[in-house]
Specification:
By secondary structure, the protein is α+β, with helices and mostly antiparallel strands. It has one domain. It is 23% helix and 32% strand. It has three helices and nine strands. Strands 8-7-6-3-5-4-1-2-9 form a nine-stranded antiparallel beta sheet. The N and C termini lie far apart (30 Å).
Length: 155
């Protein structure tokens, strides 16, 4: 995988819904020695999935929104709890924002399948307070290849 793309994935800030509002976090943190000190959501199993811009190819807004709604409907039919979230580039000159779905309790292999079906380069999957970036597009790297990260809670 291209190292610049990988760095940008790790620096992506995710706004995740929690009871008290929004939790902002990224995967570029230091090793967490005591996961119980992380916010409760980050200690659980979940995936962040999107159907926007397959293979980093910019699509018209209407097409992206339609694909994204289909993904949501399929996830709900699979009996998953799905909530809206967003990933974005926090750099001052960054303009990239991409809607995504926070999918609670989804199986890792099923999350990979959704990423592959919707032609995403990677997905974010969290298990046991450890986030990982998983390749879902064979043109980027071997499908299922994992890049482990560490949560960084942002203010």
């Amino acid at each position: 995988m291209d190292q610049n793309l990988l760095r940008s994935y790790f620096a992506t800030v995710y706004e995740l819904p929690v009871e008290t509002g929004l939790l902002r976090g990224s995967m570029d943190g230091e090793i967490v020695h005591d996961p119980s000190k992380l916010p409760e959501l980050l200690q659980k199993s979940f995936a962040v999935l999107t159907a926007y811009n397959p293979r980093s190819m910019l699509l018209p807004r209407r097409v992206n929104e339609g694909r994204h709604q289909v993904m949501r409907d399929l996830l709900i039919l699979g009996c998953y709890r799905v909530e809206h979230c967003v990933g974005y580039d926090e750099e001052p000159e960054g303009v990239w924002r991409e809607p995504a779905w926070l999918v609670h309790g989804i199986d890792r292999d099923e999350a990979i399948y959704f990423g592959r079906t919707f032609r995403q380069n990677t997905i974010l999957y969290c298990r046991d307070a450890r986030p990982e970036l998983i390749v879902t597009d064979p043109t980027c790297d071997e499908v299922g290849k994992t890049y482990p990260g560490n949560w960084r809670v942002r203010q």
